[in-house]
Write a structure and sequence with these properties.
Structural class: alpha+beta
Strand order of the largest sheet: 1-2
Number of strands: 2
Mean pLDDT: 92
Shape: globular
Helix content: 25-40%
Distance between the termini: 14 Å
Number of helices: 4
Largest sheet: 2 strands, parallel
Order of helices and strands: HEHHEH
Strand content: 5-15%
Radius of gyration: 14 Å
Length: about 90
């Protein structure tokens, strides 16, 4: 909400839902943000983003808006939370 985005799974009955590929395709997200706790070099992140190419029915994939954010700062709350917000904002542009 703070970043002007809406989680397509906000209506899930649990906080961390297990999402099937079929449901992801059905919900048609405009952006996919994949967060990885382990640090991934930029070239590897680009390759990971291309792993989504097989799901071209999803608008985010079709328009090239799959973003991989990596580093422990994506999963461990703390003083780097502003960094996460900044990176999420950039990914949503």
């Amino acid at each position: 909400t703070r970043l002007g985005a809406e989680n397509v799974f906000a209506d899930a009955p649990v906080r961390y839902p297990k999402v099937s590929l079929e449901e992801l395709v059905a919900r048609k997200p405009d952006v996919i943000l994949e967060l990885r706790a382990e640090e991934i070099p930029p070239e590897a992140a680009r390759l990971l983003a291309h792993d989504w190419d097989q799901l071209g029915d999803i608008p985010a994939v079709r328009t090239g808006r799959v973003r991989i954010l990596s580093g422990d700062w994506t999963a461990i709350p703390g003083p780097r939370l502003p960094k996460l917000y900044a990176e999420l904002r950039k990914a949503l542009e």
